[in-house]
């Protein structure tokens, strides 16, 4: 199945399929970076233990100097512990950040201890206490920042999940819309195919009936009529070949394509003579660019409809009006209510019950062919009874014509 899909469309659909995952990764990377830096770079579990230990060691040294019962060796031992505690720089993590919380520095503690005197011990203790206070303040800042980072991370995850779900939902809706559109396209295509077949069946019926009638009459016709009947058979066979090209059903009946030639419309109209039909044409030739086979179908359909609604005569008149040829077909039946005239041009719409049943396709095809020729078909009730169908021919659209071929 994938081989039938164009490469460009396949790549597009694959990218859309991967889009939710790419969106999630991108959002998570961008949204979690601030929280990551806060949690990792600032050591979210940082504590001020080393600074508190420094305070305890310096305080022990200060108290040792203040206690007259302590020996010199004991005081020296306390002093060394305090000095060692202040010199273990690796224990004082985040020292620049802690010192930035106030004006006290670790060097101040070390300098005071270097005096090795009771006054220096007092200054060292004060400096250690203030540095420890700065460390506790920094610990509170780290705790606040960590809590904010965790909340931001939580929001980022929620937003990422929401946007990913929304994008996935949109892709699902898109897939459903595309599926529905494809189903509707398939339905329209099948409907058009059925309509084309119905129209072909409708248009093949007449030449078949004429062909069957001619062959039946040929069996008993006298010699002088056989030539006329053979001409009728030839014409019917030609009509069948024109209307039964299965490779051109859409061009013939739906998306009409015309093969235009300059034709004497008088000759064409007179060729449709039959019993009960009275034909009137101009005394001089009336040439016009038309697809002769399609115009013949037009007039045949109008004649067939007229003959359905009357047992009497049907008048066919060709004339020129305002520079355009027109063909009127009049019957002497009961006519049709004017409100139904336009409705009759819709596929499968039928007028009042006539003398013969129909499919309701003839007039829809007539209008389609007429408009392809730059004209139209109108209906109006005649004075004194009956209906007049008027075919107006214009200039065929170049977009609907192809170069006429001669067989």
TrEMBL record:
<dbReference type="GO" id="GO:0005524">
    <property type="term" value="F:ATP binding"/>
</dbReference>
<keyword id="KW-0812">Transmembrane</keyword>
<dbReference type="InterPro" id="IPR004358">
    <property type="entry name" value="Sig_transdc_His_kin-like_C"/>
</dbReference>
<dbReference type="InterPro" id="IPR003594">
    <property type="entry name" value="HATPase_dom"/>
</dbReference>
<keyword id="KW-0067">ATP-binding</keyword>
<dbReference type="Pfam" id="PF02518">
    <property type="entry name" value="HATPase_c"/>
</dbReference>
<keyword id="KW-0597">Phosphoprotein</keyword>
<keyword id="KW-0547">Nucleotide-binding</keyword>
<keyword id="KW-0472">Membrane</keyword>
<dbReference type="InterPro" id="IPR036890">
    <property type="entry name" value="HATPase_C_sf"/>
</dbReference>
<dbReference type="InterPro" id="IPR005467">
    <property type="entry name" value="His_kinase_dom"/>
</dbReference>
<dbReference type="GO" id="GO:0000155">
    <property type="term" value="F:phosphorelay sensor kinase activity"/>
</dbReference>
<feature type="domain" description="Histidine kinase">
    <location>
        <begin position="199"/>
        <end position="397"/>
    </location>
</feature>
<protein>
    <recommendedName>
        <fullName>histidine kinase</fullName>
        <ecNumber>2.7.13.3</ecNumber>
    </recommendedName>
</protein>
<keyword id="KW-1133">Transmembrane helix</keyword>
<feature type="transmembrane region" description="Helical">
    <location>
        <begin position="156"/>
        <end position="179"/>
    </location>
</feature>
<dbReference type="InterPro" id="IPR036097">
    <property type="entry name" value="HisK_dim/P_sf"/>
</dbReference>
